[in-house]
Structures are given as C-alpha cells and as structure tokens.
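Shipment paperwork, digital attachment
Item: protein structure file
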Amino acid sequence: MIAHIARTCVGEPPRLAAIEAGTGTGKTVAYCLAAIPIAQALEKTLVIASATVALQEQIVERDLPDLAEGSGLDFNFVLAKGRGRYLCVKRLDQILNGGKQQELGLSDASVVDHSLVWRQMMRDFGAGSWNGELDTWEAGVEDVAWRSVTTDHRGCANRKCGFYAQCPFFKARHALGDADVIVANHDLLLTDYAFGGGVVLPAPESSILVIDEAHHLPDKTQRHFALSARLAATAVWGDQVNALAGTLAQRMGRPAVLERMAKGLVAECDALKAGMETLGVVAAQLPFAERFRGGDSPTEVCRFPHGQVDPGLVEAAGLAAAPLARINAALVEMQELLRKAMDGGLDWPNPIEAEDWLAPVGQAEARAAAVRALLEDYAQASDGAAAQGRMARWASRSEQDLELVSAPIEPGQLLGEHLWSRCHAAVATSATLTALGRFDRFFERAGLDEAQGVSISSPFDYPSIAVLSVPQMDADPKDVAGHTAEVADLLPELLTLEPSALVLFTSWRQMNQVRDALTGHTVMDAAQFQGERSKQAMLKRHLRRVDAGEPSYLMGLASFAEGVDLPGDYCRHVIVVKLPFAVPDDPVDQAIAELAQSRGRNPFMEITVPDAALKLVQACGRLIRDDSDHGRITLLDKRVLTKRYGRALLDSLPPFRREFGGRAALSQVRSSINSP
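Attachment content:
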C-alpha cells in the first residue's frame, strides 16, 4: 500500500488511486508514511478527509501523534472543521445582551429557554476552559440552540469584528497555513471546493488528497449538491425578508439607498408569495401515488420520470423564480453596502449598526440563493435537456408542507470537476470499495474511471475466528409479515448463543414489529432498540452492561452497520435480519435505475446487487475488529442461498467458516467458535 501510494503521488497524471485495505492492514499508517514525505518534498499540503468528525479526531489525537513518535518523520498537523462547528463569540454576546438576536431574526423560534447553556458557554469560553468548538462542548447542546450562536461566511465581519482576536474559527484557520498535514472531513472538502477551492483548505492544485472512508464520498456529494425548497415556508419567509429590509433601513438611519431597496422588496416579496402559492396549487394536483419511507412515518412522493417535470409546474417555477432572483440580488447588494459602511466608505447616519446586520442579511441571502437554484432547476426541466442533466427530481408532501427536490444522479461528474481534475494527486481508500470483487461500481459513482484499483486483503485468519451461519427459514423476506414473525421467533434463541450481539434491520417498520412481538420476553431486559435513546447513550449503556458481565443486545438500522466499533466482548454476534437492498421506492435510486435502463443496462444486477454486497460487507465488518477477535454472523435471509445472485453476495464476504441450513445449530448454546 505504501509503495502504490508513493508511485501514484510522483507518477504521471492523472495521479489517482483507489485502494481497498481490509480491516487490520493499517491503512492510516500506510497512507501517512507514503504521502507525508512526498508532500513535503513537492512542497504540497497533505489533506486527509474522513467521512466523520469522530474519525477526524481519532487521526489527529491518536494516529498522527503515534506516527510522529515512532516513524522519525518531522511534520506538523492540524484539524480543520467547517465554520458551523465553531462558536461565533459576537452572536453569543448579542444573544446574552439585550436579546438583539431575536430582534434581528437570528434565533430560531423555540419554546425552550436555552439561556442557561448560553451563559455557561460564555463563562467557560471566557475562562479558557472551552475552546469554542462544538465537538469539545461536553455538556451537549440542542441543534436549535447551537445554530443561534454560530454563523457562516456571509454573516462574518472577519477582521472588522470586535471579537476577531478571540474567534475560535479564525484561530483554527490561521493554524492551517503552517501545517504539513490537514485533517478535514468530506463535507468540508466538498464545501471548500464548491466555492472554488482555497477558501478554507489549500487550493486543490497545491494538495495531495487522501480520501479515507471513500465509499461514503459519492453519497455525501449527492446530498451536498442536492437542492430543495418548501413552498409554504418560502412564502412565509418572503414576509420575513420584507420585515428585515424595513427594520434594517430604520436602524441604519434611513439612508436613501436602503429606503429605496426596502420599498422595492415589498413588491418583489409579494410577487414571490403569490408565485409560491400558485406553485403550491399546481404541485398539489400531482399524482402522489408513491410512498417514500423516512423513519417511522411515510411521506407521499411524486417522482418525475427521467427528471422531466410537468409543464404546468415548470411554468409556475419559472414565474416564482423571477422575483426571487431579484430578491437574491437585492440581498447581495445589501451585504456589500453593509461592508462598505463598516469600512467607513458610506456617509450613513448609523454605520456602527452595520456589523450587527451582516448575519441576518447573510442568512436571508443564503436561503434566497438556495431556493432560487431549486426553482431555476425546475424551470428548465421539461424536455430532453433535463435528462442530459442527470438530475433526480421529485415532490414530497407531508401534513406540514410540500417540498420540491432535485439531486444529482451521477455524483462522479461533480467530483471529477471539483476534485480529481484539479488536485496534484488523490488516493481514495476504505476497507470496502469493491462490490462483488470489482471496483467498477465505486469508480462509476466516484468518477474515478482513470484511477488504478488495488485490493489488499485483511491479515485476519477469518475461517478460524468467525463463522457465518444461514439457518433454514420458511419465509421469504418479500413476505414481510411471515418473515417478521419468523425473525421474532428465532431471535431469542439466537441471542442466547453469545453474551453480546448487534442485530441489524433494514426498516424501522420491521424492527418495531419485532420489538412488539418480543415484548415481555426475558431477552428484552438486555435489548436496546434504536430510537429509544440517542445512539451514543445506547452504546454507553451497552459497554457498561458488557463490562459488568451482563448480556447486552443492540438493535439498529443502517447507522449501526458501519462506523460502530465494538471490539472483543462488546460484539460477539452480528445478526443481519435481511439483505441490505436499497429501499425500492427511494426516488434517487429509482432515477439511477431508470437512467441505467435507458442505456441498456440491467439495474438490478449492475447496481442494486453490487450496492447490497457493499453494505453486507460493511455490516459483517462490525464483528472482527482486531486479530484477537472472534464471533459469529447470522444471516436471516434465505435468498442468499436460493437466488442466483446469492453466491456472488456470499463470495464478496471475507472467508468466514460457513454453516448453511438446519435449525439444529441454533440449539448449540455455545459453539466451538468460542475456542478459536
């Protein structure tokens, strides 16, 4: 792995590599030992981007210090996070002094009083016992409370801010300039490069990129560049912009240019409100026949085949987009005027007020730009050109509002434009990049057609430390009721095989039905189901019970299938209830299949099965975390033995010892696997 990365970084362009490194190979050490000295020699910055903040912190707090101590390499490193992870001291000061944030419209409406946590933040920050980062605030804070005391680039006065010298974000940003290694996450990387690169992170051309947990990057890109707008909420927001502009002009001493802009916005906001109402009436007539299940409650969905929107909706979107474009332009101009006033370039009666208004105007401009992008996208989505844009589009309706959404089908195109074509070199790595033994699916989704793919097997002796069991079952998972009943019947006996277990479901509905069926059973005393408490609280309780020698079973969905590290006794049994095929009524997956079929491909065998294989490998990967681990995996889905794709799915897994068929195995309370 070290050699392959080194050859990639100093070779001829395109310098792109994809390396699947199985659990236990030491991939973090490998890419650091290879890339750090080369980046230093080439006067480039090594940017390591992980999928989660948790892995970021592990790399910075454990992996890189260990490497620096043991390798003899001389390098410095720093952790980089997005601006939203840092406290804005000015906003915190405003909210604690006179409630100015509520007056400016900066705080989200909430029936909860968050003043106690805000005061504690100010005390701890002022005393130096807290550095202003969200991730180091141990007491916990609700999202609505945190959003009130952070900001984005639009609302930041930078060096003009009276709290600039104390700003946690700029303190962290200054450290980036001298770093040999910057550890970021995928979201920050995508945000920075979407703004052209070099905004927070180094310019792509001066960077060597290592994308860790790279299997997440296509989905992250898809979500990052998706567009959405809630219709009724946008109409209400138009009234808020009206009020904002009027109050701003008044507080600034009524300068002529602001008075004129405020009056002009009255008509534009009225036009926007009328346009959104018309759009809502047209959208309400759509055939909401499909159902897309998010969590427990279903939401009505109307997906537009091939991304082509009904002509009436296209026309209504265009009419609503026109006044919104003018509102957006006015808000951008307001921001520029406020910055000029702060610099002393405008003879306004109350220029000292300008700094306070940057944040609310910036927030309004950000929302205007986002909704405008969605409406303009829909306004151009009526003919064959829409299909060429490769966007999935759909409307979703709930009791609260009606939302229009547009998401890119092929994130690889965006990654090619923003990342691969610009950086000096890039390495994408993960324990799971191949599907069915091939890189094809990952290369297609990530836009890495020109990359070299290398797969490095795990050093673990899987046949002697783990067993994969597929017991005989009567019900096919397509028979949801029958399969659920059979799972509920089998689980108590399966859970007694080991003192700890992770049970993975693919749907909230089935998990809740199994929980209901097991109510009153003794195994429920040791079971925790996702949704009963936070994920972190569940994991802490699980660790405490296992440490105390008590049985403990975690029941969860996809978020527990990866990124959960339960070594040793914390997880001796992984039970996969159903093969992790994508939800069949997900609008994006439907659009992807539709596009593939239009190109003469088989969506099920070329997309659905490979994606399920990847997820299955990730789920099974929760069991063996180090070379001293052992345990069992049970798959409660007979399709892996009865369907023609089943063999391919099984062969994509590590070489566990296999036990297929028969209920007798379930009666063995302790299998030989406990003596590896």
